[in-house]
Amino acid sequence: MVKDLRTQAVELKLHRLQKLQAAAWNLTHVQPFFPSLEQLFKTEKLTAMSEYGVKLPEEIDSVVDANHIKTTKGQTVEVHRKTTMILSPFKTMKGEYSALSLPKPAETAKGYSEQMQSPHTAAYVGALASVVLSECQHFPRVYGVYAAMATKHEMDISDDYEDLCDRKWFVDNIGKTFELRLRSMGGETFTHTRGRRAAVQVEDDEINIDTEDIDADHVDEPNSSGVVEEYEIPTDSECTDEDEDDDVDVFDIESCTCEDDEEEGEEEEGEPFAWATFSDVPVVTTVMEKCTGTFYDLLKTSDDPERHTAWVAQIVFALAYAQRSFGFVHNDLHGNNVMYVPTTEEFLYYKHHGVVYRVPTFGVLIKIIDFDRAAFSVRLTGMKEPRFFLSSQFRGDEEAAGQYNVEPFYTSTHPRIPLNPSFDLARFASAVFWDLFPNGPKEETTHPLFELFKHWTSLPDGSSVIFRKKGDNHDRYHGFDLYKAITRYLKESGVPRRELGKFGQFVGAAPLTASVLVIAD
Predict the structure, then answer these.
(1) Reduced to 3 states, what is the DSSP secondary structure of residue 320?
(2) 263 and which of 131, 259, 383, 473 could share a cystine (Cβ 3.0–4.6 Å)?
(3) Is 347 strand, coil or helix?
(4) Which Gene3D superfamilies does this UniProt record tie to the protein (predicted)?
(5) How far apart are CA 212 and CA 85, in angstroms?
(6) Among the listed residues 129, 125, 117, 148, the one whose alpha carbon sits nearest the alpha carbon of residue 20
(7) What is the Cα 239 distance to its own chain's centre?
(8) What pLDDT was estimated at residue 44?
């Protein structure tokens, strides 16, 4: 196992839940069971396994409406539901799965079954991560996780829309395997169905079960032994536009050396404008507390470096806890996946190897969300070895292919690429750097985060994954090449627990009655 990714024994129990009526959420055949649970609990003696789920401190008693639930503690609370398709959305669009309940060609059936039953399916990984992390204040409180059939499921495809429109199958299948809804420049929306495909132009979507160690099949945690170090610090290569080519090696990385010196940075998140709607598809929905806004929203409320630093400190402590307790790497930590809720607590307290940190909140409690691309391990009390979960998004034909090369998606024809505990802080810094420092790496500032962000994103040779070696404000890597570059070249720059000492201004003492998050004793 990667040395900075460790696990602590945790208590989780299964119990039988009452049937949930979720018509208000467009869900039928709702069940709390999903396959990842079989990796953690001994279930073969249970009947009606589909009715069992992880026991949570406060659960759903009933659905009030689309946005509210009544809990088992009698409270009516506003919630957010993260709903993820179990099957690949783009393969569903292509029509690869055909009618879900009908016979399929052998290869299609194999892929369908694997996606439905694998404990590593992204929807299941995201749901399980939400559950195990929810006991920590820096992750949303979870009230329930359910697999179900969605009569209607809408998915924002704005980020992928331009690329999808270049695919003939996308246009051909509008109104067949999905419906397309677009927002015009004037703000109105229009739904494209089968009869209106021509309007889309192709241009340049309570019984408690004790846990015990079991002999279930599982994937060993990846380790760094035997790693073939063939990936070296790169020299910038020519940036070219990628075509849809089956021969493209997903492990390749291209850096940008185009002649354009115009400044650029992380693209500002625009308003969603394209949605795909699917009918009667299997999903997993995680019901959690509703957050107030994103880290980008926070930056708009204040230009105070002291506040920015305190909020980022919360992120670092949260990641340090998750890495030391669950060997957790988020793998997609940008400003929209860091959210917040208001808090009346003036300070938050953390402890690491005897040192107590007293971090001011300025009324903000940071919450990290969205774990569909996560990697983590869970070791329940009584287990000899933890169970490892890696999102199926890292499979060779999925969207994050090429970032890692470890089991269960290891490709023997390429060097092993282990999990990187520096990834999350480097990715976060690269995502928000331009928002805080619009003049780039040569900006004259005393902001405490400026040098910290540069350190998290710097290679051993002193160059940056954000900026080109020529020193202009042009991105060195575009798109997913940035993710792959961070993973391979920034192995030591931003390990959260090693960065805690850089927040020495917050070292202090905790009141006897204070709640203290312990990173490591």
Answers:
(1) helix
(2) 473
(3) strand
(4) Transferase(Phosphotransferase) domain 1 (1.10.510.10)
(5) 31
(6) 148
(7) 27
(8) 83
SS (H, E, C) 431-451: HHHHHHCCCHHHCCCCCHHHH
pLDDT per position as a tens digit, 89-144: 988 998 888 777 777 788 878 888 899 999 999 999 999 999 999 999 999 999 99
3-class DSSP assignment, residue 280: strand
Distances (CA, A) of 412 to 393, 443, 458: 18, 44, 29
Count other Cβ atoms within 10 Å, centred on residue 322.
27
Looking at the structure, tell me whether residues 98 and 161 fall in a common domain: yes
My answer on whether 363 and 484 are in the same domain is: yes
Rounded to whole angstroms, how far apart are CA atoms 492 and 486?
11
Together in a domain, 285 and 346: no
Q: What are 32-83's pLDDT values in tens digits?
A: 999 999 999 988 888 889 999 999 999 999 999 999 999 999 999 999 999 9
256 near 239, Cβ under 8 Å?
yes
Can you tell me the distance from the alpha carbon of 54 to that of 46, in angstroms, rounded to the nearest whole number?
Answer: 14
- Segments forming the whole domain that contains residue 413: 291-520
Residues 461 and 319 both lie in one domain: yes
pLDDT attached to residue 226: 46
Judged by DSSP in three states, 330 sits in: coil
Domain assignment of residue 84, yes or no: yes
Position 46 scores a pLDDT of: 84
Tell me the C-alpha to C-alpha distance, in Å, between residue 104 and each of 93, 97, 110, 182.
Answer: 16, 8, 9, 32
Task: Give dist(CA 489, CA 417) in Å, integer.
Answer: 11
On the question of pLDDT at 196 being above 80, the answer is: no
* 128 and 108 in a common domain: yes
CB 257 within 8 A of CB 236: yes
What's the pLDDT score for residue 256?
72
Does position 330 have pLDDT exceeding 70, yes or no?
A: yes
Q: Is the confidence at residue 267, as pLDDT, over 70? A: no
Given a cut of 60, whether residue 86 has pLDDT beyond it is yes
DSSP class per residue in 206-256: ---B---------PPPP-STT--------------PPP--TT--TT---B-
Chain centre to alpha carbon of residue 395: 15
Q: Are residues 277 and 327 in the same domain?
A: no
Which segments within 434-515 are labelled E, that is strand?
A: none
Give the angle 391-393-394 at the CA atoms, nearest 5°. Answer: 85
Q: How far apart are CA 394 and CA 250, in angstroms?
A: 10
Question: Same structural domain for residues 354 and 383?
Answer: yes
Rounded to 5 degrees, what are φ and ψ at 120? -95, 0
- Residues 99 and 500: their CA atoms lie apart, in Å, by 52
- Residue range 416-440, pLDDT digits in tens: 999 999 999 999 999 999 999 998 8
Which is higher by pLDDT, 462 or 30?
Answer: 30
pLDDT over 90 percentage in the chain: 68
Query: What is the spatial distance between Cα 515 and Cα 517, in angstroms, rounded to a whole number?
Result: 7
